[in-house]
Amino acid sequence: MTRVLLFIVIVANIATAIGVVYARHQHRVLFVQLNKLDRERDELNIEFGRLQLEQATVGESTRVEQIARDRLGMKSPESADIVVIRP
After folding, report:
1. CB-based contacts of 69: which residues, under 8 Å, 6+ apart?
2. For the purposes of burial, counting CB atoms within 10 Å of the CB of 55, is it exposed (0-12), middle (13-18) or buried (19 or more)?
3. DSSP for 60-78?
4. rRNA processing as a keyword (predicted)?
5. Chain centroid to CA 13: how far?
6. Over the Cα atoms of the chain, what is R_g?
7. What is the phi-psi region of residue 73: left when phi exceeds 0, alpha when psi lies from -120 to 50, beta otherwise?
């Protein structure tokens, strides 16, 4: 009876040890994945900021051009109207 109980305790101890090793391995794998995703998020945030700045710049020049056309009656010069002056 004591040998059976000892055998059960040893098997349970080994199973628990294997479970702990597996859990730590999973933790490490998920931690590496989390770090990778954090870096990717940071890179995407930087790119998003650049795109917002570019959009604001492009939108502003388009807005100025539209106001110049509508309110001031301005237009882009035709190629025949452009004169190149050379020194």
Report:
1. 75
2. exposed
3. HHHHHHHHHHHTT---PPP
4. no
5. 44
6. 35
7. left
Helix (H, G, I), strand (E, B) or coil at 87: coil
The domains of the chain are located at 2-72
Cα distances (angstroms) measured from residue 15 to each of 5, 18, 23: 15, 5, 12
In order of 40, 55, 57, 59, the CA distances from 50 in angstroms are 15, 9, 11, 14
Structure tokens, 11: 């098997």
C-alpha span between 8 and 2 (Å, rounded): 10
Tell me how far apart the alpha carbons of residues 37 and 60 are, in angstroms, rounded to a whole number: 34
Cβ–Cβ < 8 Å for 75, 69: yes
Does the model's pTM come out above 0.90? no
